[in-house]
Write a structure and sequence with these properties.
This protein is mainly alpha-helical. It has helices at 2-34, 44-54, 59-81, 90-128, 131-137, 142-180, 185-195, 198-224, 230-264.
Amino acid sequence: MELATQIGGAVTDGLAYLGALATLGGRAAYFTFVAPLRGKPLRLQRAVSQAMQVGVGALPILSLITFFIGLILALQAAYELRKFGAMNYVASAVAISMTRELGPLITAIVVIGRSGSAFAAEIGTMKVTEEIDALETMAINPIHFLVTPKFLAMIVMLPCLTIWANFMGVLGGSLFGVAQANFVFSGYIRASLDALFLRDIVTGLIKSVMFGITITAVGCHEGLSTGAGAEQVGRSTTRAVVVSIFLVILVDLVFTTLFFFVSAA
């Protein structure tokens, strides 16, 4: 009986947490897309600043990681494909794996580590130092002021970073393709493009937008939920990273399943 109570409590808490994330995401979407039509302008300067931090700042580490991921994929694919004399399919395997799955997912994980944690730490510190209370005293909505620029920056920059990650992954695979699989560079790129359909790229970009919304909602929610004391800021930051990774994987599973059944219909 006690076990059933614990499971029920965990399920209830989880659903309440998802509800809080959905509410926060919905309010951020309202201030991003609806409120400007009703006379509440977007804080574009803050959104651009956030976009620079989220997007441009992540390019070096993301480029390095996805380049090596592409190279690893090519090595792993070649390990099996050469048994069947099908080394010419290495480019296809790398391109499809990157665009449909690994490009968006690796990008999301890198952004969680860089920006999701930063969102939680920034807003959590403001909560501890009562800056959020000061905003409310000045009749400034914290969601509009703090969350909306981050929300806009993430839904714009995550697809852009994903496209770049896909390119770097293919480029990493081409290093092996040229060195070991008897490709010339232009032939490898052409084989990669021939293997891709528009739906492969679009599904990855749709996932990246949903990942951006998830990361923003979790990071900001954890920051806004921070308790008193500096120790709580660290806990909120850690929790934001862990929960974001879990929910990104969950969202990835849901959308991959959805796309599978849609394509099979």
